Amino acid sequence: MHTDFRTRIQTTKIKIEMSRICQITGKKAMVGNNVSHSKRRTKRTFDVNLFTKKFYYVEEDCWISLRLSAAGLRTINKKGLDAALKDAVAKGYCDWKSIKIIA
């Protein structure tokens, strides 16, 4: 009985989380140093400015949800959604299966 309870806790704690990577530009967190006034250095991460945004994808006549950075949003505004997605898939930043389609 005790082992059954432990396995239940372990299975509920497992949570699949999306990595913090922009689907358009491929930007991800960088590692650097916190430098104090006394020049003491400790490790820290520089996170990406990511957010989830919905777009209407005209070519497929559906709404899609993308996880992208501010730079990715500017890329979409500059090139267009279809061209930006094709470039991202060609460069390997995302694939067509990872793009979430909203019904």
Q: What can you see in these coordinates?
A:
Helix content is 32%, strand content 30%. With 103 residues, it is of the alpha+beta class. It has a 3-stranded antiparallel beta sheet. It has a two-stranded antiparallel sheet with strand order 1-2. Helix 2 crosses helix 3. The radius of gyration is 19 Å and the shape is elongated. It starts with a helix and ends with a strand.
Strand content: 25-35%
Helices, by number, come to 3
Strands of the widest sheet, in order across it, are 3-4-5
Order of helices and strands: HEEEEHHE
Distance between the termini: 43 Å
Query: What helical percentage do the residues reach?
Result: 25-40%
Short description:
It contains three helices and five strands, in the order αββββααβ.
List its traits:
3 helices, 103 residues, three-stranded antiparallel sheet, elongated, 5 strands, alpha+beta, two-stranded antiparallel sheet
Write the layout of secondary structure elements.
Blueprint: H1 2-13, E1 30-35, E2 41-46, E3 50-57, E4 62-69, H2 70-79, H3 81-91, E5 100-102
Helix pairs in contact: 2-3
